[in-house]
Amino acid sequence: MRIRTASLSIIAAALVAVGCSSDAEPAAEDAAPAGDDPTINIEGFAFSATDPVAPGTEITVANLDGAQHTLTADDGSFNTGGLDGGATVSITAPDAPGTYSFICNIHPTMTGSLTVEG
């Protein structure tokens, strides 16, 4: 019994050493966090703010309201079209850096802006 216990201890120590080697795969928490895609939420008849994005970035637009909305750039560079309540769609940020104002064509008091840097 003593030999078996000693053998198990040696095997356990070897497994710990292998797990600590520099060739081991990174732990899941060391990987890039998921869900870091930029999102603009529509909620309470208002657009949420988003951090500046790089040119060509895909941006998720989520309509959390019950009413239909649009997210339409004043210059026409992006447009979700009619987005029903609960729906999600992606738009692509313009290629040129700048600040792009947008509006809901259905509810013109809803406005916001997207900043493209890079």
Helical proportion, percent range: 10-25%
The SS-based structural class is: alpha+beta
Element-level helix/strand string: HEEEEEE
Cα end-to-end separation: 67 Å
Low-confidence stretches: 1-35
CATH superfamily of the domain at 39-116: Cupredoxins -  blue copper proteins
CATH top level of the domain at 39-116?
A: Mainly Beta
Tell me, rounded to a whole number, the average pLDDT: 80
| Rg on CA atoms, Å | 25 Å
Looking at how many chains there are and whether they match, the oligomeric state comes to: single chain
What's the total count of β strands? 6
- Strand line-up of the largest beta sheet: 1-2-4
Binned strand content: 15-25%
Give the CATH architecture of the domain at 39-116.
Answer: Sandwich
Overall, the morphology is: globular
Query: And the CATH topology of the domain at 39-116?
Result: Immunoglobulin-like
Total number of helices: 1
Main beta-sheet annotation: 3 strands, mixed
